[in-house]
Amino acid sequence: MRLAFCLAAWLVAAPALTLAQSLTGLWDAKLVVSGTEVPFRLELAGEGASVKGWFFNGEDKVPSTSGRFANGSLVLNFDQFASKLEATLKDGVLEGKYAGGRRGGWAFQAKRFTPSPARDGIVPGIAGVWVIANESPKGEHAWRFIVRQSGPEVSAAILRVDGDTGTLTGAYQGDKFVLSHFSGARPNRLEVTPMLDDTLQLSLNGKSMTATRESEARAKGLAAPTDPTKHTGVKDPREPFHFRFPDLSGRVVSESDARFQGKVVLINITGSWCPNCHDEAPFLAELYRKYRDRGLEIVALSFEEAEQLKDPTRLRAFMKEYGIEYTVLVAGEPAEAPEKLPQAVNWNAWPTTFFVGRDGRVRSVHAGFPSRGSGEFYTQAKEEFTALVERLLAESTRTSL
After folding, report:
1. Which pTM does this prediction carry?
2. How far apart are CA 322 and CA 341, in angstroms?
3. What's the CA gap between 364 and 381, in Å, rounded?
4. Handedness of CA 279, 281, 286, 288 (dihedral sign)
């Protein structure tokens, strides 16, 4: 009788024990970056050797490539970033480290997601497009701050010539909005304080900036954000854009190869370490699938760190993640790019895409690429790329500049 009772008790307790050790669900997580806490959302599912994790970039989910959870220890691998999340579960809290990529690693902590309490009181309206005066090393005089708002909830992005911060999300807390982003790369914390003069005081990872509504910035004659189609050029547009680098199998590919002759070619300067390149890659993969039968070729010149050049595992994972079927060449280390791209003028944005017509000449250059977090500017970039590709495909090989 006692044995039967013990067995029954164990059968009742076993599911509860399993549930207690399950990580499935949403988690409120944070990294500590240079002393600053960057909160973000994490989703987990599965168990044992089949655990999966997802970061969020706004509405987009960024998946782990493998993972496991055993004896209270969690490991998630994100091969597309060459990074790893390792944490231990104790008293309902995951603690550990997110490591890898170009910036080393950061302390990590996560607790089960709990909905934020309803907020009372008046919330300032900050939705719209703002201009941030900023002198950047890339020669920019201004950035854009793009904000969407629903009551106290806000999503936003800061758009530069090379791309944006990813989707920053958050809410109104007291006298300011607190937003953050982490999707496997570019951890950012942004505090936005509305001022009495209808400007916004911004603090991005501790850096102070001022944002002015776009209409007001124009009226005041403030500098406009850089046009990404006018930032970079070539020394001689009559000269074919030259490249000669090996692919992942070691076979050397150049612009003179027969497969590129008479084609429209997009030469994409990229790197699997570059967050904005991750934003652009799925669109380029889609563009190539749509237009390759009409004569479009895309060639990615990927510049990777020395360790990755020895064994480009991250680049391979990057290609797999985004379904890349176009040509990818291993061009060297990032610091070597200016020397290896001697025809480019004022090239300093990752990524940058050179549009080559059927006649072999560079017809346009687009610096950077925004993520979905930039809203209308993301849509505009995709439309501009598509329209230019269609126009170039409609031309003959004898079209002159």
Report:
1. 0.91
2. 26
3. 13
4. positive
